[in-house]
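Quick one:
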Amino acid sequence: MLYSHPGVLLLEHLKNVRNVGLKAHEQKCEIFLNYGDDLKTSIDIMLYYHDLGKSTKYFQDYILNNNYNSPLSYKNHALVSACIAAYKTYNTVKKTNRVILSTVVFISIAKHHGDFEEIEKMLVITDFKTLEVQYNSLQVEELEIELPKFSDLQKFSKDLFFNTIQGIDNYLLLNYFFSLLTYSDKSAAAFDSLYHFEQTKIPFQIVDVFMKKFENLEDNQLNRLRKDIYIQTEERICDVAKSKILTINVPTGTGKTLTVINGAIKLLRENVHLKRIIYALPFTSVIDQTAEVIKDIFGTNHLNSEDFLILHHHLAEAKIKHGEDYIEGDKGQLLIENWEKPLILTTFWQLFYSLFTNDNRKLRKFHNFANSVIILDEVQTIPYKYWKLINIFFNRFAETMNSKIVLLTATMPFIFKPDVDRTFDLIGDDLKRRSFQIVNRYNLLKLNNLDEINLEFLINHAIEKIDKNRDRSFLFVFNTIASSKLFYDSLKDLSLLHDIIYLSTSILPKHRKEKINKIRSSNEPIIVVSTQLIEAGVDIDLDIVYRDLAPLDSIIQTAGRCNRNFIKQKGDVYLFKLKKDDSKKRDSNYIYDAVLLKPTADALRKISSLEESSTFDFIAEYFKEIGDTLSNDMSDTMLKNVEILNYNEILNNFKLINEDPKSLVFVEIDATASSILKKYNKLSEIEDRWERKSEFLKIKNEFLSYCISIRYNKNEKISEFEISSGFLIIPSSIVNSYYNEETGFQRPETMIF
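Output:
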């Protein structure tokens, strides 16, 4: 009897992996159409042959602990399995397809326990002597596999794999094959019985039913506009036809979330080949807010959202409903990362680092991008340097993987051009322009004519403004945590009548969420002091907004928090240019690239003030200037590496956010944190690393809610902090010296601002 894992027969494992993978593939429709039936044939071979090399006497001795004393390389199984599977594929599929498909099968099997590298490295076989030893010890009788002669296999392997594969379509094909194999292999191995997942279909009318809750709202311009946007999006879904890139470009506060969810669900109704909605947002800070809306939709329809929804980001709980059971720990995390339910709510980070990566684990979900509606909410946050990459890649991706891409924002960047890229706007030009004309909620003004000011100037101005507007709420948005804290402390010292709330990434996620909920539910005038984390998607409504200089789209997004619900008098948004007295640079230059600030300054120089109703054309002109003047070098580099399947460089060059050196710090702020920390420390007693990881995943959500990321000078030691498994810990004995619930983490001198 041959074994693949302790207690698991090899034949049973191979059959299970094939069944799981083929079922997943057969649910996909109209993908990689040029390969016809050969696509399924080669996938079948890959899945069944992937662990063929485990039938060697060396692997069997190793797994059964039969006093293994042979060279360690003899027990390896991936390469010999890959060679035989590739040979089988080459001699089975049509001549026109055999080089690419056999190469893809080879790489997928050879690397299925590791990460991708440059294509040339993955295709070179250097040790045919070990390969021959393994081949001669294969025991395949019970597996019903016919082996070729080794001489034929060796000649085939030497001749074929100098023909490298190139192009975006082949990048997608390889990722798809690899994803199916790693998904099937890990899922089948993790569950004792044959892994099975039956996707639940989302009822098509659930958002319509939910919308009935708002039928008795006041009949005003904004509510009528929201209804018009909702209805027109659904009506135009029927006209999408072959368009793969769709857009919804309407002002903030006009019901974009409900509109796009309903539109995506109706796309599933109109196109039976579409199976899944992947809703991606740029920040974890707004995911919980969107999740609440989605759960409310399902709840209103008397449905359990956990049957339909997967919430996937680094703070998400590693627990999932699977059938009638709830699964947590490593198996729960595995199921979450498989992205198999019909609605995935995730971050840009999770989405893009599954498209542009060499990582085994991140690629595992790749096959479920096929036949999906992918929503990119707040798409303007994608850095300009990747616009060309996103344009070219997603056009091929959507066509090859038979998916739809929906771009959603109030400030639509020129990533795709309607006249060139066959995009389809789900909001017609007339309604789009009318929406921006109707929703005229604020004036954008330049404080001190946008000449440089210091904090003292801003504080004095703010105090005077607040005193004259005691019945109105304020939002002050800064570019740096240091300035935001100095400003907050100055206002707190004045004992103003307003309640003052501070927000930044220096505050624990647990406290951040509580503060946002407090802002949203407040019925009294308040003052909010924040960094730019507030700018995109956070559903709050304040009367007067101040924003430090930023790229124009960020300014407009922040302005969307002003008079958001359009039920008060017109608000004011003051733009200022802050430079601290002891600083050589403006605050904006610490955060944003000068090449983005220049087009903003050029645009703002032309106006003395700007009404929201005029922002549509204003922002369009700004994005056009960016597209005409800024460099595409990074996109070109990424595209080149995708084209030649240079996976290491793809990983090295794609940086969605600035990844400064940071450390994760756990803050033992209260009794709950102490209890979680105690559980975490107890994990070290578990000897088996997989069991230890699984147990951590059960408390990960709670643990990370008490963690913040900080930049610090690693040459300096912070003796008071504890260190545990890569985490820094601020113990309860000194927590008051380094953290308070109002402003969060307080940096000692050894840390970099």
